[in-house]
Specification:
Strand content: 15-25%
CATH class of the largest domain: Mainly Beta
CATH architecture of the largest domain: Beta Barrel
Distance between the termini: 32 Å
Structural class: alpha+beta
Number of helices: 12
Helix content: 25-40%
Number of strands: 18
Shape: globular
Number of domains: 4
Radius of gyration: 26 Å
Largest sheet: 7 strands, mixed
Order of helices and strands: HHEEEEHEHHHHHHHEEEEEEHHEEEEEEE
CATH topology of the largest domain: OB fold (Dihydrolipoamide Acetyltransferase, E2P)
Length: 480
């Protein structure tokens, strides 16, 4: 992995470690590296009498190893971060051979890698497939998976009874006492490996708690989501009993039930793209007190395919100091492997490492080619997507602008065929102050591209779009 400022920032366990690491670069001494640049090492003055010995070993570039003699439990610690920042800044590092202590550790790791490769090759050749122990392990593993699925099905049944109780009671009749009882039942759903369903019920209670002036639009939508989720979950888990090792990788149902995908699983199911280039179109952070976490969301376009994705970083209150908050990213992010989660129109993505480069006019022109020019066709696609209760209700898209005008009630944009899109604020972002949209229109509007987030009114059926960014000939302006 190339030690660029962005990559180093991405390795930092949290914002404080990143800040402290930068502040410590002046306390480094005896900076050294190997001739092939795979190892950098040095000393960093700390609170102890003796300086801390720190190093970054990239013998395996995909999995750098961070070592420091300090007592910190963070990896990498602030001293190692300082060492990497100094290297990225172009500080002078003396060329030295690999220290004996690290050479021995490298040798041990290489031997472990060889042993692992040999075992994997042996397994691939089927040399252990006939082993009684192996057959017993396979049976035990399959039995454990089926047992978990049966537990999940029991949980879905309990959740169905809970939903039935809520509907029978009536949303407006759920008072403080009833809410307490529901919270206890929702907590019990945590025993069934269905955390996604449990969170959906928790969100419903939060929506009910925040109802004002008898406006039950959001709770009603959430009831519809829960009903569809429980039906889909029951059907999916029932089918999965016969094939416990097969996962659904086109829809997000696994994650909606409560499964957390691992990157190696996404790779195995071919949910990845090589050599991706990403540009962030918008970024937003918000507090979710009901789940006791902060959430960072980013919206991105992949330059080679034009696909629009989102990133989501969860920072639970209790672990927030150990999880780095994300921020807006004004560069092109290049990553060798982009992992794509199962999802609908704007699936979630992740990556392990990457490097940044400046945005060019060629990038802007490439993005503009992916924008929709026919609003009528786009609206049809969006409405077909959000008809599914389990799909994202706030998809994003790129649209090309021809004209814009304002009425007494709204701001509209128009395509070349005269089809209109209504621009508006969207409650998804909470109680943000809406900037007067017309003040953001570029002087030369025709041909400008806009990134928008859609929302459909439950009662009127009117689809509106909230602007996220303008894409002109020269610059991308973030609105939020």
């Amino acid at each position: 992995m190339e030690l660029t400022p962005y990559n180093i920032n991405s390795l930092a366990p949290n914002a404080d470690a990143m800040k402290n690491g930068r502040a410590l670069t002046g306390k480094l001494d005896k900076l050294q590296r190997t001739d092939d640049h795979t190892l950098i090492f040095g000393q960093c003055a700390g609170s102890g009498k003796q300086p801390y010995q720190c190093s970054v070993d990239q013998l395996n570039t995909d999995k750098p190893i961070f070592r420091c003699s300090c007592p910190s439990r963070q990896t990498p610690c602030k001293h190692v971060l300082a060492l990497m920042y100094a290297y990225a800044e172009g500080r002078s590092f003396d060329v030295m051979p690999v220290p004996e202590e690290i050479a021995l550790k490298r040798e041990k790791l290489l031997q472990q890698a060889k042993n692992k490769a040999a075992k994997e090759e042996q397994k691939a050749q089927g040399e252990t497939s006939a082993s009684p122990d192996n057959r017993n392990t396979t049976r035990s593993h399959s039995a454990a998976k089926k047992k978990k699925i049966l537990t999940q099905l029991t949980g879905v049944e309990q959740a169905g009874k809970l939903l039935h109780t809520i509907v029978q009671t009536g949303l407006s009749a759920i008072d403080i006492q009833a809410e307490k009882g529901l919270k206890i039942q929702i907590k019990e759903l945590g025993n069934y490996y269905i955390s996604g369903i449990q969170n959906a019920f928790t969100d419903l209670l939060e929506m009910l708690h925040n109802v004002h002036n008898a406006q039950y639009t959001q709770p009603i939508l959430q009831l519809g989501y829960l009903h569809a989720l429980l039906q889909k979950s029951h059907s999916y888990l029932t089918d999965k009993l016969n094939h416990p090792d097969v996962a659904e990788v086109t829809s997000p149902i696994e994650e909606q039930i409560g499964y957390a995908w691992k990157l190696d699983e996404l790779y195995r199911y071919n949910r990845w793209q090589p050599d991706a280039e990403l540009l962030q179109l918008a970024f937003y952070s918000y507090d979710n007190p009901n789940r006791r976490e902060w959430v960072d969301e980013g919206y991105w376009i992949e330059l080679h395919t034009g696909r629009l994705f989102k990133t989501r970083n969860y920072r639970p209150y209790r672990a927030a100091e150990h999880i780095k908050a994300e921020d807006s990213f004004p560069y092109i992010l290049q990553t060798e492997r982009l992992y794509i989660y199962p999802g609908d129109i704007n699936p979630r993505i992740r990556w392990e490492s990457g490097k940044e480069r400046d945005v060019t006019i060629a990038d802007i022109n490439a993005i503009k080619q992916y924008a929709h020019t026919d609003y009528a066709e786009l609206v049809k696609q969006i409405k077909n997507t959000i008809k599914n209760p389990l799909n994202d209700k706030h998809p994003i898209a790129l649209v090309t602008l021809h004209k814009a005008f304002k009425s007494d009630y709204a701001v509209f944009v128009e395509d070349n065929e005269g089809h209109l899109l209504t621009l508006s604020d969207i409650s998804y972002f909470g109680d943000d102050v809406l900037i007067p949209l017309e003040t953001w229109f570029p002087s030369q509007l025709d041909g400008t591209v806009m990134a928008v987030m859609f929302d459909c009114d439950l009662y009127t059926g009117i689809l509106t779009a909230r602007p996220l960014a303008w894409i002109t000939n020269r610059v991308i302006t973030f609105l939020y």
